[in-house]
Amino acid sequence: MTTDSKYAEKISLFISRSNISTEINKTGTWRYVRPKYHEKTAPCSAACPAGEDIARIEMLLYQGRYQDAVETILLENPFPSICGRVCFHPCEAVCNRAGFDDSVAIHALERFIGDIAIRDELTLKLKKFPENGKSVCIVGAGPSGLAAGYFLSLLGYTCDIYEARSEPGGILRWGIPRYRLPDDVVASEIERIKKTGVKIICNTPVTQDFLENAKKRYHAIFIGCGHGRSLKMNIPGENMAVDGLEFLNLLCKGNVVSSNGTAAVIGGGNTAIDVARSLVRLGTTTTLVYRRRKQDMPAFKAEVEMAEKEGVRIVELYSPLKISEDNGEYILSLQKMKTSGMVTDRDRARVVPDGQSTQHLRFHKIIVAIGAEPSAPWQFPSRKNDETLYLSHCTFTVSDPPVLFGGDLTNTVKSVTDAVASGKQAAMSLDVFLKEGRHIIKDRLNSCLVGNGPALSMECYLEKKRWVRNPHIVSYSDINLDYFSQTLRVESESLAINKRMNSFDEIEKTFTIIQAMEETRRCFNCGICNACDNCRIFCPEIAVILKGAKRQINLDYCKGCGICVFECPRSAMDLEEEL
Amino acid sequence: MKHVLEGSHAVSEAVRLAKVQVMSAYPITPQTHIVEALSEYCSDGTMNARFLCVESEHSAMAAVIGASSAGVRTFTATSSQGLALMHELLHWTSAARLPIVMAEVNRALAPGWNIWMDQTDSLAQRDTGWIQLYCEDGQEVFDTTLQAYRLAETVNLPVMVVLDAFFLSHTFEPVDIPDQKLVDRFLPPFSPRIALDTSDPFAMGQMAPPNVYMEMRYDIQKAMEQVPDIFAKVEEEFMEIFGRTYGMMEKIFCDDAKIILIITGTAASTCRKVISDLRSQGEKVGMIKLKMFRPFPTDLIRKHLIQAQKIAVIDRNFSFGASGIFAQEIRAALYNNHVHPPVFGYITGLGGRDVTPEILTEIYWNTKNSIVPENESMWVGLTDG
What is the ipTM of this complex? Predict the structure, then answer.
């Protein structure tokens, strides 16, 4: 050591070295393209009927910012706990992660956040608009009516919701069985809506007279009463069958205790599946009869699969001919059907009778759930008025006062989340109408589309952060996969099949915090900056500067090399040409 | 304690004991075994070091340039095409005065893809400002790697430790691997004379206009000129601790030799046997094993060669349009001397071909039986066609 340093001292080390800053060399003058932080739209959020900002919600959850995550959801959907349970989650079908390993369990994470919000009583801390003195009459306390009331009240309206039944919730309370959606979840989320100032008046069936009277007292009417009347099969002996909606209704009231023996459920929609799965839980051997093929059922695919797993037998391509009674049992006569080419109607196969082939099945009970329709003429939007706006999730009739129709009355897809979309669209269009007039409604709504729509964002409507987002939907090829490794999707714990047989206990459990963290970190956070800092770390000119939590490009030195944009794992940056 | 080790792993062990802090390399046969062992040492915690994976040799050298500029001990290794790809940064390393040590496994250049022994790759880098040390066996390459750090860190110049493809890199020999304590005594932690420091930022390697550039180059040469003395000191200390020494060159039977063979690398071992056989036949023959090529030990060459009547240089390399590179350098070293015996340049063993005792014996007799060289370079063992 000493010998070396003695020698080293004799070795001159004349190299170029400068303590003067190189900042004099403004490398920014070399630039002809400039990087830009520009958040884009995640495919999940565009597919969500409620337009939830999912990529951001997952980021907030991963960062442990529960309050922010809850608020981000509640700005778009008042029912995270409910939708996390019952939504058919189209978001997961388009998740970019599916191309890599498996889609993110978005529904389970939404439910986790929703349950946290209930547990910790987290609410939207948005500064409510001052009451504007305008009041809205809402018909039906189902999901669309509740959502309309919720969003309108955020915008400063006074809302009265009239409900025929003894408790609010509509399909949430009286239709969806408890193994999918427990009562207390529904009650808690409705309670939160009430706290925004919405008034719910129960035991008040709305009639045409009531409505005419209401038109004089309110500045607008929203009708979201749903389909109250079941469709008829128009076959002999139909009166011997039980109505599916009525059955579920009684079940929710607690008036059906057990039902031994055998039952046939006729239909292929979600109501039919709910009835069949409920019957299984009551101890009934259940057969589902559907006139088309299984894959043509309008029920959500996952529900059909679960029903089969739980023991529901599905008889496809049989159409009911008649019901007759024999010794206290019922004989269901069925006509064999066959497919006859594909039709455009939601890709369902058209079916025609297959010769004279029939079948006669014996049951203790027959329940019909082939669909429903509005129960009174006033529940149909008026078609006379040229001024009527047919929007994606509601119909806006311009009269004095304006009357809006939403929920199942107008929605193509009859789901809870579409009902929320309906309430939101109604609230936004009514607000535009009352403030700026009819002519501007479409333009204003278009500026709030998530991606290319049809989902709308309340956050955009209020011109908050999301307002400036690029509608471009991030594709799989936009993701820099080098920054991700394959991991298994976390599945929530569920009740064993044999334990479901005589229990209406909820099937799926909410994620534990560990499961939620593990799953939410799988999210690519498509199109949004999650502060991973790659842009700053990789910038060769140290031209990305951190100001508080915000990153900025120092254009004096940015050469426009594009490394930051390339290394952004989630396409939250763009390179644009300079003129 | 002696271990039976592959030549490549003798290098790896030396790097481990030198407590190198940052390594970066790109795999290439026949070098890969060296860094393979080191990457395992980094991942399993045997070494407290970072191994940076890169996409090319150019980047490997760039990575260690960065690390060395920050004042840590670094290592890389390469061969043939990989070394050629590094070329730009080899100049940078020496001009930035970074004491990087690199193991370079002599391998032939393509095309005519050939992974075997050939010295043209390292000799083609002779003007890059790197110190070059050629090794004969596993023990020497282990010892030289440790010495290289002492040398490099004293003169602030990079050192290339050169070993023959397969004949050394893939041959297992007994190698004495000393305890860490002994190595620590010989090689203390690196204390850089200059190192980047984020708390006191400065820039290195920027513009050097005509008024200073030439002085910087002169400075590198002044440092190079100090190398023989410092290497001698380093070897002295090494001898004290480990009991082994090599010298910049080793002379055998040179004092009364009429003909001296000059040779490098593993072929020196073959040559030792050949001249001992020739001596027993009464031939006045000697040999010089040249270890240090840069800086070129001109003074020693002059001192040891002038009493010879003829000199035969064995080159396993070739500079096209000129001659064997060692022969060129020796001719140049002798030219300004008052006596300069004729230099016979022999080209043999290119692309991994064996340099056998018969070939070396033939070279000796050819030299003895010729008054002057027939050609500037004589290619030995060429087959027809």
Answer: 0.85
